[in-house]
Amino acid sequence: MDAEDALDGAGPCGLSVCMLASGSKGNAIYVSDGATSLLVDAGLSGIDIQRRMEWAGLSPERLSAIVVSHEHSDHIRGVGVLSRRYKLPVYISPDTLKAAGSQMGRLHDIRPFHIGRSFAINNLALHPFATSHDAQDPAGFTISRNGQKVGIATDLGVATGMVRQHLKNCTLLVLEANHDPDMLVNGPYPWPLKQRINSRNGHLSNKDSGHLLAEIQHDGLCHVILAHLSETNNTPEKALDTVERVLGGASRSFQIHVACQERCGSLLILK
Fold first, then answer.
1. Exposure string (b/e) for 55-83, b if CB count within 10 Å is 16 or more?
2. Which of 147, 174, 217, 270 lies 20 to 30 Å from 32, alpha-carbon distance?
3. Is 0.70 surpassed by the pTM of this model?
4. Per-residue pLDDT tens digits for 83-120
């Protein structure tokens, strides 16, 4: 029995999440309630996403849609080919679609959404919210079903009040922990790129991610996935250690996981 058959057996109720890829070489997140299955971004090649889904016991043929956060290539590289191959609708903001230009090629079906306006994909309720990033119309998302809520916030230079508000009361959080500031400053990147990463329109540092998590944690939070780690300016150990130190030694209800670039993570099923 594969992972999706197990979910079907439990009925279409609890949400499940699998980080297929996370980082500057490509991003893709699988979210499902057992009946409706989405990809939030598809930034690897189509064949790589297929392989990773199959490794995790997931079937591309059972996808319902692709949702796009912004137009950078590490988030849209595989969108077009997957949309055409599996006849998937693509949910994307008009400004992001325009900014993407011809990068995705022809899409099977385009379903526009607007930041700040909730929409539904079958029984999944999605709310796109604005993030601070150097893209045309970047979005984070919450995805809700039967009282469970998944929050996704990567590719943001600062956690605004709006971001904090939308990420409250999540059952599972995918949260950026992109870089260690000292590694960034002392690393090999050219100075303009260092400034971009460290700006309000860049990426959250490990410490910033920890402070955000400390503010929004609550008893109903089960899982936190640290995501979009830089392979040059961070390590999984450093990200986890920094966030743990910011949180302190108090007991908590949630587990912390670290997503990586080279392989997909485990399928996390919310009970």
1. ebebbbebbbbbbbbbbbebbbbbbbbbb
2. 217
3. yes
4. 999 999 999 999 999 999 999 999 999 999 999 999 99
